[in-house]
Fold this sequence. Notes:
alpha/beta; 356 residues; 8-stranded parallel β-barrel; TIM Barrel; two-stranded antiparallel sheet
Amino acid sequence: MITNHDIKLGVSLYxxxxxxxxxxxxxxxxxxxxxxxxxxxxxxxxEMMMPExxxxxxxxxxxxxxxxxxxxxxxxxxxxxxxxxxWKNKQLTDDELVExxxxxxxxxxxxxxxxxxxxxxxxxxxxxxxxxGKTIELVNPKIAARLLPYxxxxxxxxxxxxxxxxxxxxxxxxxxxxxxxxxxxxQYIGLQADFSSYEYRPSTAVVERSIRDGGKREVLxxxxxxxxxxxxxxxxxxxxxxxxxxKKMGAGEEEMGFFDRYVRRQxxxxxxxxxxxxxKRLVYVxxxxxxxxxxxxxxxxxxxxxxxALKEGGYRGFICSEFEGNRLLNDIGWVDExxxxxxxxxxxxxxxxxxD
Length: 356
C-alpha cells in the first residue's frame, strides 16, 4: 500500500517467525503477508530467511526486486546481530566483528534497504549476558566508527536500537553519535526507537504464560497491578516490602522470577515528551507488541500517546510492526501471526488518522 504519509507503516518479518520456521510461508509468502496487512515496507533477518547469507547472488537480488515490485513493497531495514558470540568456545575479535558487520552493510545496499538495525552494546542500556557468566560486548562506539566509512560508501544508515530498559534519551547512545560527528559522517548513524520503552506493564501474554508455567494467578496479577500503578498513577512501592508480601502469599520460583524481572529491576516507562523531543532525530521505529485484545488495542502500550508523540515531534519514516507474542502464546496452540500483524496495522492506521 503505497502512501504519501510522513509516517509509513511496515512489518519486521521477524513477526512471522513461526510461519517461516514451520514452513507455512517461505520468504515470498512472508512478504505477501506484510502486503496483505497494508504495509509498504519490510525489515528482514538475512540469517533467518536468506539461505545464501552472507553471500547474496545477483540471481537472488533479481528475484528479490521482482517481489518488491509485485507486492508494491520497499525494503527498509536489514537486521544486524553483532555475532560476537557466534562460536561456542570464543568471542570474535573486533577485526572479525567489523568484517561480519561490513557484510550486513553490503547486503543492505544490494537489497535496496536504507538501514541496518545495529545490535550494539548500549541498545538495552547494558551489556548482554553470555555463557559462563561472561558478558558479550556487541558493537561499541569505536567499532561503529570503523563501520561508518563503509556506510558512506554504500549509502546505508546504522540505526541504533533504543530498546527497553534503554530509551531514546539514554546518554549511553551519545558516544556513537559523537564518533560519527568527529568523522563528519553523522548522516550515516541515528537513533531507532522501540516501543518496548513505553510499556506501562508487562503484557497479559507474559503473565498468562507465567501462570501456565506454574505461577500463582493471585500473586502475578498483584505484581502486575503494582507495576501499572507505578507507571500510570506514579504510585511507588518498596521492593523489599513487596517481596515479603508475595512470599506470605505463597510465591515460589516462578513468581519470584517474575518479581525479580519486573519489580525489583523495574525501570519506569520512558517519557512521551522525550520521545516527542527526539522524534526528528529518529531514523527508524519498531512498533513492538505481544498481544492485541478484543478491543483492538495493544494491552501494555498506549499506542495513541506513543504514536501521537512521534507525530507531534515531526517524525518522518517507517514504523515496522514487531510481533513477539508468538513465543509467549505458542505453548497453547498455533499463533496466527498474520492476523495479529493485520490487527496491529489497523490500530496504527487509526492512531495516525489514515483513511483506509
